Amino acid sequence: MDKTRAGIQSVEVGFALVDALARASGPLMLRDLAAAAGMSAAKAHRYLVSFQRLGLVSQDTASARYDLGPAALRMGLAAITRLDAVKLARERLPALMQHIGHTLAIAVWGNHGPTIVHWEESPQSVTVNLRLGDVMPLLSSATGRCFAAHVSREAIAPLLRTELARARQLGRTDLPRKQAELSQLLKDVRAHGMARVVDTLLPGIAGFCAPVFDFDGHMVLGIVAMGSVATVDTAWNGAVATALGQAARQLSHELGHTG
Predict the structure, then answer these.
(1) Which fold would CATH assign to domain 85-254?
(2) Percent of the chain with pLDDT over 70
(3) How large is the average pLDDT for residues 68-94?
(4) What is the pLDDT of residues 54-63, one digit of tens each?
(5) CA nearest to 103, candidates 257, 244, 249
(6) Neighbours of 35 (CB within 10 A)
(7) CA 107/CA 116 separation, integer angstroms
(8) Distance CA 195, CA 148 (A)
(9) Is the pTM of this model over 0.85?
(10) Where are the domains of the chain?
(11) 77 has a pLDDT exceeding 80
């Protein structure tokens, strides 16, 4: 039988002040900081005196506002440098795969475009002719569309021009062939919070890709779900998209993203 481990309550109470500063958009007056932490100004002040001595909190002498101090900055930077987004994502894939019942993958932006770096295959999955290290197309894959919607346009402009030209040459009516069509597609990806393709990359295969962002708002990886169109719920508010989106948002939060 698990028992709640004993702790130091005053530390937990005082941390509410540091947490409130971390969540605030800027420095706070004592009354506002205390209110955000759910305590009286007098009580908050006693904690803040100690936090200032430790460097966790600083106070501007001119405005009297409180903000995070140099020690908080050092701890934050240390935590960031130790984060491994792909490792964190890999640890979560088995449970997510069991929940949605479809094959999952992780993709990152490589030298030649969105690249599959991890694969978690469902026992019930259909055979998909994709391998680790494969570079996904920007227009016809959910992975490519997701990255195209969030990475800098300068980084992908040459690739997009090539794929648009190829789509026109092949007469693909299921892919954007003009810049205006592409812009609308990427706008839709951002609006839905993920990308989706059905029968576009591979016949009979549907896929989603949800972006994961770091503390600076950069897309660091995409979590991909795919399977047969006969079994994958392709609705934007369906079971697959909902679970995938929740997992991506949670991981983004753990990486420091606040958007």
Answers:
(1) Beta-Lactamase (3.30.450)
(2) 93
(3) 82
(4) 999 999 999 9
(5) 244
(6) 15
(7) 4
(8) 10
(9) no
(10) 9-81, 85-254
(11) no
Is the pLDDT reported for residue 2 higher than 50?
no
Which residue, chain included where needed, has tokens 């490792």? 87
Closest CA to 257 of 192, 207, 195, 193: 193
| Cα–Cα dist 91/132, whole Å | 17
Q: What is the pLDDT of residues 214-233, one digit of tens each?
A: 988 999 999 999 988 988 99
What are the φ/ψ torsions at residue 223 (nearest 5 degrees)?
-100, 125
Domain 9-81 has CATH 1.10.10.10: yes
CA dihedral for 8, 13, 14, 20, sign (positive or negative) = positive
- Tell me which H or E stretch contains 228: strand 219-228
Q: Is 224 within 8 Å of 106 (Cβ atoms)?
A: yes
pLDDT score, position 58: 94
Enter the tokens of residue 225.
């779900």
In order of 5, 36, 43, 183, the CA distances from 74 in angstroms are 28, 24, 26, 40
